[in-house]
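subagent[fold] <- orchestrator: predict structure for attached chain, return tokens only, no commentary.
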Amino acid sequence: MTRTAKAMLAIAVGPLPCLLAALSACDGGVARERLGAAGQAVSCRGVYVEGVVARVGEVVIVSPGHLATSAEGWGPQLLSVSVNRAFSTEVVVQGSDTGSEDQDSVTKSLEETASNGVTATTELIAGTTVAVPSGAYYRVEAYPQYQVLDFAVRRGSCGPFPDVWLAAGVAYQPVGMYFRGLVFADDAWSPLDPPSPSEVPDPALAAGDGGVDAMDAADGG
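subagent[fold] -> orchestrator:
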């Protein structure tokens, strides 16, 4: 083989390993970049809520745990009660073994998902005055009114797998105050103006905290 031929062969063969290495590095880099992008696209959403639906009307939970304030006394007098404080939104996940971290995720997701402005707390200001006749003993109680929201709790899965349904949930958002007048007669308390109740389980009872409370549909403040 002549010197010219050897030189031409060296030029043709010599750079080939470098060319192959460059192509391999290029392909590997593209592959790694694509894999990284795919990995970023796969996210674990965690626990969240969906299908938030507000029930028609508002409810009042008549129980010692939900009593905001009260006043009572003999007549004749004007018995006044006023409220100016923050009330918490109560979130109950029914039949679920979610931990406190998941409960926090449910509350946060509910605030972000609900269109009617669910917040952790609501400041309520209201008051009422009841005329107590002579010889009568009255009591006026103040309870927060709640807007009830139903929703589903789901856990987002990682990768191509579908999300998992966990439980049904109910949120009680404070929206106003309900004042309940009572008169003490014949050794018993009786409502001054009995509401037409639509009784449903108390949130504490649904959450397994015990208690025998009733929830009455409020007819007005």
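orchestrator: received. Logging for downstream: Confidence is low (pLDDT under 50) at residues 4-42, 196-201, 209-221. The CA atoms of residues 42 and 160 lie 8 Å apart.
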